[in-house]
Amino acid sequence: MAANTAQSASPRPASPRIQGGQLRVFFFSLIIIAVIGILWEGGKAFASANGYALTIGGTTIDLTLFNDAQLPHLADILRAFGEPAQRNGEPLYQMLISAGWFTLWSAVQGFFFGGIIGFILALIFAHSRLMQRGLLPYVVASQTVPILAIAPMIVIWMGRVGNVELAVPIIAAYLTFFPVTIYTLRGLTSVSANALELMQTYAASPVQILIKLRLPNALPQIFTALKISATSSVVGAIIGELPSGIQNGLGIAILNFARYYNQSPPRLYATIVAAGLIGILFFAAVALVERFVIRWHVNESP
């Protein structure tokens, strides 16, 4: 009897269906990358063969977007990682690793700061209809203001208190808190009515209902929000670095390479690829934590 109980209590391994689904996602991602590469190089070859102009029915379509000065070859972008970032300087990949770590750290700070704010707001809204109806519209409206308009103001405010670098995590947090608030609120309030009534029948306190019912029910929604926020925080950190004048992150690298785009387009594209990889790694890290925290949800997924 004890052996059967222990066996039933042990976590179940991932089903073959889930493992097969992961392999399908992996191969599908490779196919998408291959298709993008074919379209990229195919478009350049087609435009070059037609003199970067295509005439259809008397209308000439400008194809100069595909020339090497505007859209470099994929091989040139890969080669740029090993070339000096500046004249007689370190290779571009070393500079991007250093700048990427700086941006990622700012994004992580904003991620946690915004996640905590979003979670607290969701708790307040879930337990107070009045607060939800009064404040939630302003939370939604806050996301309609362009971040490029808010970022300079935050930099100026932080500059007046002598801590400009804090502006970058704050901007990242601004893009992070909203999805956490909305998804967590949905998870906290979408509990089964029968389960909630049963907890109340046993005279469970609001804290007990939160810990034993609402929070476990909301975990899948919370992690969905965190995965969205992981990539958003990287975008917010890069945007925050642009007006702040910080010289260590990917934001200033993108800005500098954009100024000299006509001289060396591959360096800008390589920097954009590096920024994308950081966002993907952050997303993957949150997804990995999700698998350990809510294995029951992953194992029972269809």
Question: Secondary-structure map with pairings?
Answer:
Layout: H1 2-9, H2 16-49, E1 53-56, E2 59-62, H3 74-80, H4 92-127, H5 129-142, H6 147-160, H7 167-189, H8 193-201, H9 206-244, H10 250-259, H11 265-293, H12 295-299
Antiparallel strand pairs: 1-2
Helix pairs in contact: 3-11, 4-5, 4-7, 4-9, 4-11, 6-7, 6-9, 7-9, 9-10, 9-11, 10-11
Describe this structure in words.
The chain folds into 2 domains: 13-71; 74-299, MetI-like (MetI-like fold), CATH 1.10.3720. Helix content is 75%, strand content 3%. The chain contains 12 helices and 2 strands. The chain has a two-stranded antiparallel sheet with strand order 1-2. Helix 10 (250-259) packs antiparallel against helix 11. The two termini are 30 Å apart.
Jot down its keywords:
75% helix, 302 residues, mainly alpha, disordered N terminus, MetI-like fold, 2 strands
Compact description:
The protein is mainly α.
The name of the CATH topology of the largest domain is MetI-like fold
The number of E-state strands comes to: 2
User: Can you give the mean pLDDT?
Assistant: 85
Q: What is the overall shape?
A: globular
- Helix count from the secondary structure assignment: 12
Unreliable stretches (pLDDT < 50, length at least 5) are: 1-11, 298-302
**Termini separation:** 30 Å
Main sheet properties: 2 strands, antiparallel
Look at the structure and name the CATH superfamily of the largest domain.
Answer: MetI-like
% residues in beta strands: under 5%
Q: Provide the gyration radius in Å.
A: 25 Å
